[in-house]
Amino acid sequence: MSDKNKALIISTSPFIKDKDTTPGMMYQVIYTLIPIQLVSFYYFGLSSLLISVTAILACVLAEIVFNKSKTGIKSLSDGSAIITGMLLAFTLPPGFPLWMVFIGGIVAIGMGKAMWGGLGQNIFNPALLGRAFLQAAFPTAITTWSNPNGMYANLRGANGAFPFMQGLNVDGITSATPLSKMKFDHIGTNIIDLLLGNTSGSIGETCAFLIIIAGIYLWAKKIINWRIPISILLTVSIFSGIFYLLDPNIYPSPIFMICSGGLLLGAVFMATDLVTSPLTSKGIWVFGIGIGVFVVLIRNWGGLPEGVMYAILLMNAATPLINRYSKMRTYGYKNGMK
Amino acid sequence: MAVSDIQNNKLLTFVNGIHPKDYKELSNNCKIQRMPFVEEYTLPLGQHIGAPSKSIVQKGQYVKRGELIADSVGFVSVSLHSPVDGIVSDIGIFDTPKGDVLPGIKIKTDRFSTQQFHQKAVDFESLDVNGFIKSIQNAGIVGLGGAAFPSHVKFAIPEGKNCKYLMLNGCECEPFLTADDRTMVEYPKQIIDGLLIVNHFLKAEKIYIAIESNKPKAIEVLSKYAEESNSNIEVVTLKVKYPQGAEKMMISAILGNEVPSGKLPIDLGVIVANVGTIKAISEYFRTGMPLIERIVTITGTSINNPTNVLVPIGTPMDEILEFCGGIKDNTARILLGGPMMGAVQKNLNVPVVKGTSGLLVLSSNEVKDFDQYNCIKCGKCLDACPLFLNPSRMGLLAKKGLWDEMLDFHVMDCFECGSCSYVCPSGIPLVQSFRVAKGILREKSIRDQNK
Ligand code: SF4
Ligand code: SF4
Question: How far is ligand 2, taken at its centre, from the CA of residue B370, in Å?
Fold first, then answer.
């Protein structure tokens, strides 16, 4: 009997569990980000790698410091700080000074996550919050874009600038992103270049093709909700399509809209952040359509060439409200209430 | 996707739910074996929901197999019978599977008896509805699915309501359990007969036998016998999904509408019966045998010979485990019932009671400890909950002890199926905390009423 008694540890049902775990899901996201990082290295060389490594280091460090009191090292093991770091890096221009990247990472975790109480408690996507902070603090550096191509070992711009200095653009080559060319000069960009990522832009946003594959993979693994990217992309296509049909000389085509800038990266990796998107399918449609509308509004009429970041942050802010109003009807009740 | 999956997707079912691995292959081909009589049986008086029965025997008294040993007390209560020819060896307070102690009767088996059964068939056709209800109560028959609710209470249709549909719940959606499956395969005649007897009194327009598609043999034989019976019985195949066997979910799958919150299936004109119960009813009316034995699944990855066993009520659990070859060294948990809603069995020196549907011996491979993380608002629990509750939100409220707020989220409707906890990637003990919340809220409302 003694052997048997050992087995009788008390606990309550259910005794079996699905295999998905939170860290497991986070690491799946990290794996899909790695190919994008590699392509970015191909286009932007060492700069892209340095920025990512710096951002990840900053985020991990911040996670350790801010969460030490509560969960110790354990909160690191969920992998979410690494994702935040990589995503933050992906939204930055290749020539961005590394010290600014570092600050961005600290802000992303500190203000984007830890301040709210850690994983799952935040309202805004931490990476985007970090990026928004950098945009406000360093408006020039963040809009200085360098060309893809060039030697791998060459830095693209002012990565090495000393802290609190803007630094000089080392190779002096800058170029406009497809979106700013469109916005300010009404010049389009070859769609093949957009798909392959052979354009200037943030380090992780340029290769549309890989991002789409990553999205399909994450959907198949049930890590992201397909409704989010689909609702965003549909809204952007339809909304921008209407204007394109009205005047194709002024307004960009829906295909250009979708493949350029950070839209795909945002739709697949950022808007889908589980924590900051609505819980119910109904809510998710509202969320996605909202983002789509804001993206088109900002891109076509706002002062900035790109609007994905603000569109997602705005809808992040609306998510608690959406959750409240998209409360589901409980089984056996007529309309939510008895 | 396999062809069978595509077919499965077209079958009737409810909304949401989960797809755990079912492990039925461990025991779904094992013929029901009769457990040999053991030395002594323990029969708690309160094996059913409602008032415990009252003992009518004395210590030292000789009782026959099937003889009444405790009488029902009031309407929501049933009789209790001796599972063997033997001598009442003790009347006292004994351990029960629920982990508490209850008054009960111990009977020492008469080793020289042949354990023949001597009762007579009951002529149901001469009975009226009340007579039928009384006989089921006297036969000690309860719902054998686990809750052990007295069947006659269920069959006593309240004034002003009527039964349009009688449904046999052959879903058996809990992973591992196969007792109902085997019962349907091996006793199809008794099941059809039992349903027709019950419907002789309930007069439902339609009798549905609901079976999940992972029990093809049961579907086949019951369809055959249903057709031969030339009656209003129809076998419906339901999608394999947990908790398909929950009454509400099964009704929604078949009829397409919902049981209103706080109401019973009879409000929709439905009465649901369990497989073992219907078999017991047929047996009682055809042979006179009251409920003194039941079929139990003994399974799991850590039992040497998983199988289905016909055991007399009152058999000690450790003897049944021995009968099935004993447990392996890597045993991590022994459960009463399935892995989704079952309870840990602390003490094996307790008897099988009327509500014992299975004993599940799990190894450390299935029962893993997992780390707990914050809720990441992934929504998986919302997509799993068959009642469309918001476990994510309720979990956060429970963590803060905001019980009253949980009421607004209909926590009292939660029937503790555990689907939310099963899917949660953050390993949050959701259903566990709802159980606590419901207990606290129930106590609170009783206190408020008494004020
Ligand atoms: S345990 Fe309750 S809340 Fe969780 S899925 Fe089942 S009914 Fe829903
Ligand atoms: S499944 Fe778990 S982590 Fe996901 S929303 Fe529900 S409670 Fe939160």
Answer: 15
